Amino acid sequence: MDLRDAALQSTCPVVAMPRYGLLPDMANGQRVIVAANGAFVQVKLDWLDCVQRLMPCRPAMPVPYGQVQERVAFSFGVLPIRLIEAFIERGRRALPNEVAGALVYSSRTRGLRLVMCNALRSSPTHIDYCLPVLADDETVAVDLHTHGHGAPFWSADDDRDDQGIKVAGVFGCLHHERPSAEFRLVLNGMYRALPHPWQAVVPVTEVHPDDALEPGVLRKILSLLNRVRA
Question: Which CATH superfamily is domain 81-226 in?
Fold first, then answer.
C-alpha cells in the first residue's frame, strides 16, 4: 500500500458491523462502519459519541454484516439553560448588531462554560470574530451566534465556516420575548438538524420522565439534545 494511503486510512479506518457480536470500542477519532443497512460514520470526542449515516443504500446482494442505528450522545448531558440565557442576554445588549460565542467543554471538569467571541467587525447582518485562547483541556462544543432582529437561518457563510465537529446554534428575533433558534450537529461538512429551545410542538413521546424533575418546556427541549433519535 502507498504510504500516503496508509496514513490517510489510519485517520479514518473502515470496520464491519458484526451481525452477532458487539462493535469494538474506539478511541477518540472517526471511523466508517459498513453495515447491512448502509455505511455510517462514527465520531468520538471527549464530549461527543455519535453514529450518522453516510450512504443510505442497501447492498444489492446479502452481506454478512449487522444493522447499525444512528445515535447522538453528549457527555455533558443537558445544555445548561443558564448559559443559553446568558448568551441571549449578551445578544440583546448588542442589538441591532450580531454577536458570537461558544460553549466550551473541559475534559477536566466534564462541564461547559460560556465564552463570548472577540468581534473584529459586527453589523446587523454579519459578524467576523475570533475565539479567546482556551485552556489545554478545553474545546469548542457548541458554536453560537445571533442574527439580531432577523430570523435564524443557515447562511452560505455559515455553511462555509461550519467545518470540523461541533454543535452550531443561531438565535434570531432577539427583540421578541421568545427568540427563534436553529440548532444543528456539524460533522466535517455534514449537517444534522437538532431540536432547538423554542420548537412550537414537543411530542410527548420525546420527553423523558426524568425531565419532570426540571419544570419548564425550555428545559425539556434542551434535554433532547442529549437523546436525539434517528
Answer: Cytidine Deaminase, domain 2 (3.40.140.10)
